[in-house]
Amino acid sequence: MLDLNFVRDNLPLVEEKLRQRGMDPAQVLKDFHNVDAQRRHAITEAETMKARRNRASEDIARLKKSGQDASAQISETKELREQIQQREKAAEQFEASLQDILTGIPNLPHESVPVGKTPEDNVEVRRWGTPPQFKFTPKPHWELGEELGVLDLERATKISGARFAVYWDLGARLERALANFMLDLHTREHGYTEVLPPYLVNSESMYGTGNLPKFASDLFRVPHGEKDMWLIPTAEVPVTNLYRDEVLEASRLPVSLTAYTPCFRSEAGSYGKDVRGIIRQHQFQKVELVKFARPDTSYEQLEKLTHDAEEVLQKLGLHYRVVALSTGDMGFSSAKTYDIEVWLPGQQLFREISSCSNFESFQARRANIRYRPEGKNKTEFVHTLNGSGLAVGRTWVAIVENFQQADGSVLIPEALQAAMGTDRIRPKKF
User: Fold this and answer.
1) Which candidate, 39, 42, 27, places its Cα nearest to that of 96?
2) Catalytic site residues?
3) Per-residue pLDDT for 272 more than 90?
4) pLDDT above 80 for 271
5) Which is it for strands 320-324 and 336-344: parallel, antiparallel or unpaired?
6) Whole-angstrom Cα distance, residue 413 to residue 424?
7) Spatial distance between the Cα atoms of 202 and 299, rounded to a whole number of angstroms
């Protein structure tokens, strides 16, 4: 969420940033200026009336003490009390309307973000490695997985429905080996602390990261008594909310956390997209990277977080590129995002495998996560960052497609061979 005073004092800038995102400021901001003015007017009137009531109360005490009639003053205080209540109720209603407007305003793009309307306006920053060369036509992972006997979409549909998957034998072991490999790399070499958070969270947690109220249709809601619970769409939600309503000491920053969890997404609005294979699933696993940083170092930390995620692909020998998302392609809460896209030869395209974002104080303001700068009493909002390190299922896809062999087998990257207990996946039926 943006700061109310900032929006009020910089309305033309906010409008321009919304246009850069491809949004109509009038639809997003609605009647912000009028609602804000009426709220402040109601508050001012209430405070003025309270001052009059206090003076009248003093007059009543003085008149009664001297034995004089105070009925007029008593009648006045009664009327003022009713008017104050009306003004305060109006101020509360305007405040609710104002908060509704503020929660619907996306984060403002950082000045370094390329301006554009669509993903075609994203800017490639760098590439690593080269795509593999084949003497045969490479297959997509859904064909390879079925032929190898390690990916079973038919039985998954039987037990759960579309957009679910069952992994068998070395396919399941590859998923587990990848998760352990990523966690070990991030904790042992990159300095992250591992966390195992809940997979169900309350509405306050979803609000804190910007998922609610705007994106409720993208989530799986679980009614629980009088309150709703939600299956997490990413570990970003519970891990970021670990410090909700807390104050961190500046000496602790940056705090770097990593978590391996399942992720649940309804994929609302994605009908017809990526219907084959396991690219877009209702349930998938991911290793997440989350940082809490000082505002003056958050963009330095964004670069580090992105490189930490990239190193997973480098150690696995997978060709990828990094792109800076344009203003029209960024997420609601992000101020700047890098997408890491891995090459998939079976589909002849780059596919996003991680989004690394700096949210600046947008999430921290919603979740009330602060820090106390050294030598200062007043607290400030931290900057939050997160990125996939990586999406495990899509890394599984990348390995299967990039390391497929002419005989139908798939080679295992050297970094995973000890955990896999083999250097190759060969066809096997279950």
Assistant:
1) 39
2) 265, 280, 352, 355, 394
3) no
4) no
5) antiparallel
6) 9
7) 30
